[in-house]
Each structure stands twice: as C-alpha cells, then as structure tokens.
Design a protein that fits this description.
The complex is a heterodimer of chains A (501) and B (317).
Chain A (H helix, E strand, L loop, with lengths): L5 E10 L2 E11 L4 E5 L6 H8 L7 E6 L2 E3 L4 H6 L2 E4 L11 H5 L12 H14 L15 H14 L4 E5 L7 H16 L3 E5 L3 H7 L2 E6 L2 E7 L5 H9 L18 E10 L3 E9 L3 E6 L5 H8 L7 E6 L2 E3 L4 H6 L2 E4 L3 H5 L6 H6 L15 H14 L16 H13 L5 E5 L7 H16 L3 E5 L3 H7 L2 E6 L2 E7 L5 H9 L8
Parallel strand pairs in A: 3-8, 3-9, 6-7, 7-8, 13-18, 13-19, 16-17, 17-18
Antiparallel strand pairs in A: 1-2, 1-4, 4-5, 9-10, 11-12, 11-14, 14-15, 19-20
Chain B lengths: L1 H5 L1 H19 L6 H10 L1 H15 L7 H17 L4 H26 L3 H20 L3 E2 L4 H8 L1 E3 L2 E2 H19 L1 H11 L1 H6 L4 H27 L2 E2 L6 H11 L11 H20 L4 H31 L1
Antiparallel strand pairs in B: 1-4, 2-3
The chains are: A alpha/beta (501), B mainly alpha (317).
C-alpha cells in the first residue's frame, strides 16, 4: 500500500453542543479518486473544512505524506497542496482566464510577463484535456468553464489533493462528462481527487474507492468493485430505502387545469404548448440552456411571456407578476434556495408563512403569530424538517431541510398548479426520496405539477408526460410509456431519433 | 431573558444605565422629569425621523434627504405664516411638500431603480437649495404665539406636542415593524429582495411606501422644529441626517438591511441624548461631544465583529 498523501487520524469536531465529526479516520492515497458519500448533515462539509484549514479539529491529527501538520487557514492547506472546488466556482469576471488561474500566485514582482503567463495557463488547461481560450475574459464563461478555471488554479498551485464538492450539481449532461474526464486527467498526473457527490452513478463511474460517513462517523471505505448502490445507500441512511422505485401506475388524471398554447418570450423561448391535468406530473427535460426555467418563470410572472395564451381552469388569463400567478393558484419552487428561495437569516416560521402571509393578517395588518406558529409547527412535523423548533434560522439547516422549508412555504399557498425547478438538486438520497414522495402525494391530491429537472432518472420516475426542450424550443411531448432515457437525450441533444413534436 | 441580555439590546441597556449613573453622580439634578424632557426636546425632531429611518435601513435602503426635507418644510411653514396663512393651512401645505418630496424619492428608487443613496443624496442637495432660495440670507420668524406655544409648552402634562408625537410614533412604528405583515415584508426585502419578489411581495410598493412615509414624517418634524425655535433659516436642520443615521446604527440596525429592532434604536437614542446632556452638564464642548458619539458608533460597529471573531477563534481552538 502506498503511503497516504493525506490522512486523518481520529479527528473530532464539535460546534457548541453538537458533534459534527466523531473519531473520523481516513487515508487518501496519491493518484486515486476517492468518493465520500453521506446524507446531508452527515459531516461532509465539516470534513472538507477541516481538510482545507477552515476549521481546526478538537482532537486527532492531520498528516500530509506522513508528517503531522496544523492547518490554520486555507492558505496553510494550499501550501500543503490541498485545495477544494465547490459547486459555485469563484472567478473574477473582469479578469481574463489566465489571470484567474494565477490569482493566488503572488510571485513575480510588479510587472506581469503576459506572454509567459498565457503560455503557462495554456499548458495547464491542456493538461486537463480541455480547450479554453486563456485570453478571454472570465465574464462570459459557463459554470462548467468556471469550474475548469478553478481546477486549473488549483493545479497551478501544485496541488496534491483536490477536493471536489458537488462539482456536477449544476452541470448539464455533457459538461458532467467533461468534468469526469478532467478528474481522470488529474488522477493520471498523480493528484488525489476527493469526490463528493449525491449522484451515485457518477461515483460508480469514476471512483476507485468509496468512503461512507453517517452522523459524523466513518462507516466504511471500500474499493468500488466491492460496493453496490443498494448497499451504499443503506449505509448512508442507516436503513433500507427505495429511492428510485419505478412508478407503478400513472397518477389518476383529472380535468385540464392549465392549458398553454404557443407560449413564448421574445428572444428567450417560444412555441411551448401543453395541457396539464389535475393530478398530472409533467416534467420539463432538456440540457442546461434549453430555457426550461424560463418557461417556469413566465408561468409564474417573474419574466412574463410575450406571446401565446394561457387558460387556467377554463378561462383566459395573462400573468405579469408573481402576485397574479399566486392569486391564480400557481406556485413556483425555485432551483436556487440561497438566492431566490429562502431568507437565510430569518427563522423557519417566517420563511414558511412568507408567500401566504395574507392568511395570517388580522385587523390593522397585524400578524396572528399564534396561528402562524401552529401552521409552521405542523409543517415541521409533517415534512420531518429536522430542527428543534421553528424559530431556528433557515441558514443553519442542511440543504435537504432547507428544501423542505421551501416546499412548506409553497404548500401553504394551497396551489393548484405547482412548478418545481430542480427540486432535488444538491440534496442527499434520503431527502430526495422524501421530496419525490411529497410530489407524488400532491399529484394524488389533485394538484397539477410541473417538474423542471436535469436528472433523467428523476424525470422518468416522476413524470406522467415529458416535455423536452432544446435551445428555447419545445421539441417533444412524450407520454411516459414512450419515454426512455435514450429517447429524451436524443431529443434534448437534437441527435436523430426525435420525431415527435 | 439571559439571551436577551447578551443581545445587542441588552448591551445597550447596560451602557444606558452606566451613562445615567455617571450623569447622576456628577449632577444630581440630572434625573428630574424636567431635565429629561428638556434633553429629549433639544433633539426631538431628529429622534422622530430616526424612527422611520430605522425601517428604511432595515429595508436595506437609505434616505439622506430627510434633513433637507425637514429644512424645506420648516422654511415653507415660516414663509406661509409670514404671508398671512393660518397655522393649520400652512402646516397642511408642508405635509404636501413632504408628500411630493417622498413621491419623488419613491418613484426614482422603486420604479426607476436608481440606488437610494444616489437619489436621496441628489434630493438632499436639491431641497436644501430650495430652502436657501426661499429665505435667501435672512431668517424668518414672527410666528403667532400659539404656534410657538405648541412648539415649546406642555401638551399632556409637561410633555410638548413633539414629544407626544415621538412616543406615539415609537409605539406605532415599532408595532408596524415587528408585528404586521408590512413590517415582515420590510425585513424580508432587507434580507433578500429577490426572495421577497419570488414570494409575491410587491417590493417596489413596500419601498415606495417607506420613502413617502419618511418624507412625510420629516416634513412634520420640520414644522415642529420651526415651531420650537420660533425662527428658521436656509440652513435649518443642516446635517441632521448624519445624527439620525448614527442613532439608528448604534441601535444595532444592520447597514446591510434585514436586521434591527425599534427597542434597540430607542435605547440608542436614550444613550446619545443622555450622554450629550451629561457632557454638557460637565461643560464639555459640543465638538468633543460629537467626537465621543462618533467613537461610540465606531465601537458599536467594531465590537460585534471582535466578539464574533473571538467566538470563532474559541470554536476553532
């Protein structure tokens, strides 16, 4: 066995009274792709923060190539060759790609040798096996390209261990492929990659070894060949779970709730049309950039449609503000919890009541805080939001629990048409199964549901019908019986096979 | 209870009690009802406007034009009285001035979308200009006796009209901020305006309402200012906006919005007024007083950062 490039021995870390990590031991070998999986709240974030010097352990040791080290800051960690990239990359939009790559290399005096810098940047990018113009400004880069820049930045710092935290959470299918091949390229150069993802299929494709953690403890580390998906999930949640149970029967579909004809927004998307029945789940599939979210935003009145018609419960409507949409019984659960979904510094209860605040107003606009509290409490119990009470700041909850708070907020508006945008992005398998169960239950109760999702297994598990979009156009509307992963991908990517319209 | 004492408001309460104790030990006559009313009355117009400024800053906006609106209202009031208008109709005209000024700010901030810092800075300069044009280099006085009486004498017991209005507004705006749907929307917008918009909150309308409210209350404060002093000039209430913002920030309201309480601002007002008065009783000059208040504000910004820093260090170590 080769000597570990990074090793944790019996590391423990507590915050106030809660133990985030207990007796965590882990050895990362050079040139391996080591996946770490666990539910949200299992301690993955704390683990990353300890490895990158953001937090210091209460007990235990960190060893780099056999030497005990103390990491006081991310700079210390970088000096030891440990760096991390996150799902939201940090690039400086006004600088060019090469400048972004070398942003933390302070050597070289006051004068920049541009020619040498571009050459070096080209060399690093080429090592990753991607093509990227290092002279262009970073401002127009896609998320995937920004990640490439971050990885190149880490490489420029002679990284030995690169931690990738949910790197594919916001990427489209072919961008995921590119990222996986970058990870393999890093491995080929002897860099150890710690790969953290909720997407188990990716882990099976690239990881050499998998470590499962749960409740801050190390559960197992095994070579990938000895791991099954079922066994891994069982270890993660500590119980058996059927997260991807194939839908047994189509939802009982009722009368048409929402009828959309030729919907479009100038310069963004056009030609979207469908009938959505009560109790039906319609999934919007497509690659990133297919403008699926824009359809949701148009239906919710954030970026109103400029053409086409909408019938809701049989009457013509136009929607130009979210308020109008909400008054018509439409709710939109955003994909971006942090920026658009939740007020992170406010407590759970005021986040849940926010969209339906009117219902809790009494004389003079006073809030009936008792009724509000009871309502919030009932959602905390019904959706199993893991928090001691509803006065806790939402920002202190894990991703899955935040997602449930956001769901509660929209359920409380008693919607008839509910639009979910990437409802399970970045949340763990346990919470994902719960969110899927909630969506199915809502449909069974007669709510018309639209799910925008880039996760094809999710689309196929939830949908009654699948609407496929490509570059702002509707390219297919498939019944679930005729939808397969291959067919949807073919339509979404525009490669042959797509005949339906 | 313990949690509250460790909060910002708790800290302010301790500072306030310390200030009181210090003042009483230097000047035993300090804690009389009349002295407390006097020290309130000396700044009553500022503290009235500080109440509405609290809502604006929690909303993550700023209104720099308040003092200029106060000045303009005071000047218009004095001018109309001198033109032979009745006190009531002159005051009403000033409210109209406030309304127009407020609508102007509201439209530019909420509809057009220019940052409030820029809009209200421009208006601060503009309204001040109007005031100077109206009075030129002179001062306007000679108000009817009943106007100055209303400005100076007790309305309810020893409490003058302006102080009564302050306490009414303190409670009303406190309830508005902390207990109503509107107040909740103000806080949410201050925390994250996009989240508010995606939750169906009419962000523009809330902001517009606040700016109209701010200018209206500033106009009322301006009229009260004129009535209390008995004469006004083009530079009346000059620079008050900074004292007002100081009170709000010392009260623990975050300049980034989303956080703050009316109780905190009230305590900060008590501290500033008592500190100034105490220093005056000790014959400390006005400039030094201002310096002390300034240091207090810097400390109040530094302290939470230092405490937070210490806590993270302790958590890490």
């Amino acid at each position: 066995m080769t000597r570990a490039v990074l090793e944790l021995r019996a590391v423990a870390k507590s915050f106030a009274a809660t133990a985030a990590l207990k007796d965590m031991s882990l050895a990362i070998e050079p040139g391996e792709i080591h996946a770490i999986v666990g539910e949200n709240g299992a301690g993955k974030s704390t683990l990353i923060k300890i490895m990158t010097g953001v937090h210091r352990p209460d007990a235990g040791e960190i060893l780099v190539e056999g030497r005990a080290v103390t990491l006081r800051s991310t700079q210390d960690a970088q000096a030891e060759g440990i760096a991390a990239i996150y799902q939201e990359p940090m690039v400086f939009p006004d600088l060019n790609v090469a400048e972004n790559i070398f942003i933390s290399n302070r050597a070289g005096g006051a004068w920049l040798d541009w020619r040498a810098m571009f050459a070096e940047a080209d060399r690093i990018v080429a090592q990753l096996g991607v093509s990227l113009d290092v002279r262009r400004a970073a401002s127009g880069l896609t998320l995937a390209e920004q990640q490439t820049v971050e990885i190149a930045r880490a490489l420029s710092l002679k990284v030995k261990v690169l931690i990738m935290d949910e790197p594919t959470a916001s990427l489209s299918a072919h961008e995921v492929e590119r990222l996986l091949s970058i990870a393999r390229a890093l491995k080929a150069q002897g860099v150890a990659v710690i790969y953290i993802s909720h997407r188990l299929d990716e882990i099976f494709r690239i990881a050499d070894r998998v470590t499962v953690i749960r409740d801050g403890q190390h559960i197992s580390t095994r070579p990938i060949a000895e791991v099954t998906e079922e066994g891994m999930v069982r270890e993660m949640v500590g119980r058996a779970i059927d997260s991807f149970a194939v839908k047994t029967a189509a939802n009982a579909v009722g009368e048409v709730a929402l009828s959309v004809r030729g919907l479009g927004r100038a310069g963004v998307f056009r030609g979207v049309g469908f009938d959505l029945a009560k109790g039906e789940v319609l999934c919007l599939a497509g690659l990133v950039g297919a403008r699926r979210t824009d359809v949701g935003l148009a239906l919710f009145g954030i970026a109103p449609a400029t053409e086409g018609s909408l019938h809701l419960h049989g009457s013509d409507v136009t929607i130009t503000t979210p308020r109008q949409a909400m008054d018509l019984g439409i709710a939109y659960v955003s994909e971006d919890r942090r920026k658009l979904g939740l007020a992170m510094t406010l407590p759970i209860f005021s986040n849940i009541s926010l969209a339906s605040l009117r219902r809790f107003l009494r004389t003079l606009g006073l809030i009936d805080r008792k009724a509000e509290g009871i309502m919030a409490e009932s959602y905390r119990k019904a959706l199993d939001i893991r928090a001691p009470d509803c006065r806790i700041e939402v920002g202190k909850l894990s991703g899955g629990n935040q997602q449930k708070v956001m769901l509660a907020k929209w359920l409380e508006t008693k919607p008839q048409v509910l639009i979910f945008d990437e409802p399970t992005r970045g949340i763990d398998v346990g919470a994902k199964a719960e969110v899927h169960a909630i969506i199915r239950r809502l449909a069974a109760e007669g709510v018309a549901v639209i799910v925008i999702s880039s996760d094809l297994p999710e689309v196929l598990a939830l949908a009654d019908r699948v609407l496929v979009m490509r570059e702002g156009r509707q390219v297919g509307l498939l019944d679930i019986s005729e939808a397969s992963q291959e067919r949807v991908i073919a339509l979404a990517a525009g490669t042959g096979a797509g005949v339906a319209a | 209870m313990i949690g509250w004492l460790r909060s910002w408001e708790g800290g302010l309460l301790v500072v306030f009690l310390a200030t009181l104790a210090l003042n009483v030990s230097f000047a035993p006559e300090f804690l009389t009802v009349q002295n407390q009313i006097n020290l309130f009355q000396l700044s009553v117009e500022k503290i009235i406007v500080a109440l509405v400024m609290t809502l604006i800053i929690i909303n993550a906006e700023i209104d720099l034009s308040v003092a200029s609106v106060m000045g303009l209202a005071a000047v218009v009031f004095a001018y109309l009285l001198n033109q032979g208008w009745g006190g009531g109709s002159a005051a009403l005209a000033c409210l109209l001035v406030g309304l127009v000024a407020g609508l102007f700010n509201a439209v530019l901030v909420a509809k057009v979308g220019i940052p409030s810092l820029v809009v209200t800075l421009a208006m601060m300069i503009g309204y001040r200009g109007f005031s100077r044009v109206i009075v030129q280099d002179t001062s306007l006085g000679n108000f009817p006796d009943w106007v100055t009486d209303l400005g100076q004498k007790g309305l309810i017991g020893p409490l003058p009209l302006s102080l009564v209005l302050f306490f009414v507004l303190l409670v009303a705006l406190g309830v508005l901020l902390h207990r109503t749907g509107f107040g909740r929307q103000v806080v949410v917008i201050g925390t994250n305006a996009d989240v508010a918009r995606f939750s169906g909150v009419d962000v523009g309308r809330v902001k517009a309402t606040l700016f109209v409210m701010s200018a209206l209350i500033s106009a009322v404060a301006g009229v009260l200012y004129a009535a209390r002093l008995g004469s006004v000039r083009g530079d009346s209430a000059l620079g008050f906006e900074l004292d007002i913002i100081t009170m709000v920030l010392l009260g623990g309201v975050s300049i980034f919005g989303g956080k703050g309480s009316m109780v905190g601002v009230f305590l900060a007002i008590l501290i500033i007024l008592n500190l100034r008065n105490g220093m005056a009783l000790m014959n400390i000059t006005g400039h030094v007083q201002t310096g002390v208040i300034g240091s207090l504000l810097i400390l109040s910004v530094l302290l939470p950062n230092l405490v937070g820093d210490l806590r993270t260090r302790r958590a890490r170590a």
